[in-house]
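Allow me, if you will, to draw on your knowledge of protein folds for a short while. Thank you for your consideration; the sequence and its tokens are set out here:
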Amino acid sequence: LSPGARMGCFTFIKVMMILFNLAIFLGGGALLGVGIWVRMDGESFVGIFGTLSSSVMQVVNVSYFLIVIGAILLVIGFLGCCGAQKESKCLLITFFSVVLIIFIGEVAVAVVALVYTSLAETLLTAVLTPLLREKYGEDKRFTEIWNVTMTEVQCCGLNNYTDFNNSIWLDKHETYPAPCFGRSLLLACLHLCGCLSQGCFNQILKEIRTNAGAVGGVAAGIAALEIASMGVAMYLYCQLDKK
């Protein structure tokens, strides 16, 4: 390419880098703002977004999650945008390093999730089954989380309904929790063991596998964006030496 063409290509990629990272920066700022809002005034958040947000907030501390993700996106967007705008080699290589670390972390999590699924099931069973027997029906928040999970996923216990055997709930009420009967209200009234046989862990895994294509597509898209961002950052970094 002629020097003019190379300069035009450099300018185009630089502008695209600025716009792309500006969008990331603004998105990160929005997530950070929502996270702070949820942290300071969670009741208003639930009031606007409804009962689903309440259920989600019971399972995950949404405010901290949004604050962390928003802060990371802010940093990445700032480094990429300012690095390209100011043509700063220091900012560009820092941007490259941060995205590379995140990319490696995502790959590591994916590998662990694929390889150690059975180990995760064993650990969860060892930890959660005793908690179900001791805290379900006694701890309000713990009970609400499990009720929402069992109702939405149509499951009972972690492995199956026998997780509630010898539990405080069964001793007190002499029947399994209502969500364990699904929509079989007659069975629930008769206190018969017509419980949902599938456990929540297997049901969640089944849902993940059913939607594995969509999840994999999203993950591949994110990975492609990260690789492209690193490639563009390194291209700009190397071209600055030639200017």
Summary: The mean pLDDT is 77. Residues 108-183+193-221 form a domain with the Cd81 Antigen, Extracellular Domain; Chain: A fold (CATH 1.10.1450.10). DSSP finds eleven helices and no strands in the chain.
